[in-house]
């Protein structure tokens, strides 16, 4: 039949009637649903699907970008692993959000592989030097190529969908010194970040230190996000009397100092864990005993939480792994991998009450292939089928345990590399804009997009095209 000709015996009325019956059979398009119904559907989707739906139409984009959607989505939010490559041959600002498969509530079906297709970004480290290194008058059309050192901001911890980022390098200090100054706070889902003001300079005595510790938390009473930092001093006399802690409230332009750091906090393990308005650390005292030290952001003081009812100390037999903190379904938890016994996970069902500690998991860390995996495990999240996801720091991998099936399985990322290692933290995705969090007119909220960033050059703002190297091909 020639193109453009109507089929013989079928007129315009018949075609219109057929199309009408077809539309009646298919129903109205989703984009025509009432806003309340669309909102109720969109908040139940995975982050990956929501980001796709945001590009479907202006109506959905408006709904997903609204503060109402962000609050409803965060209220339903659950912690999931947030991965970043730690392999020395891969340097990237890319983060991977790992969500359980949509067709099931766990990782039992099919091969034990996780897709790394939900990619997020953190800001460029020291973006001013990116601009200073090249001639940008006018900016080159080909863009500014980012080098390996521009990807090196470290993720300290996660709090309510926000990440605290710190300086990765030592500055004019011995090679053994670890320098971890907080630099920025970002929301990887919305692609926004804010730079923190320069911290207060300490005096010469406290300037000599081994490391800086920091973390991000939230004060429910004041409805404010705060960043703290404290430094381990060299001198024992200082350690006994307590050292300084700097506190910064997001939206302000300065830091303030308090003087009540417990001495045991300098020997803390792992990243800080946020829960109930406080940051938590497991600390080791001089006698080898462990304790849980917290910083309450409402009263801005250090406190303690009663530990589980077992021998909560480090002995010479603790050669397997350390005790690691986490949050499972809104409850403080401890993963005890010490000794050569089974891995035990304790959960504090009523916060602050020692009697509410309950041993929820106890299993051997032997994979289905018969391989024993010793070391420290960090609890990441509980899945809806009752299984648990753990992060093993030594192997840089995620592990899955379903108590109903008595399995302990290694989850391999589908990234094309057999020896890839990752760093993982528990993260609750949030679509809440940093502009609503900061609530300050003089605080700049910047984009983390790698291809278009705004910088101040010669007193004016210019858009600079940034070209990010393929993370799989970045070597150093």
TrEMBL record:
Q: Which domain of life is it from?
A: Eukaryota
Q: What is this protein called?
A: Uncharacterized protein
In which organism is this protein found? Rhododendron molle (Chinese azalea)
| Source species taxonomy | Eukaryota, Viridiplantae, Streptophyta, Embryophyta, Tracheophyta
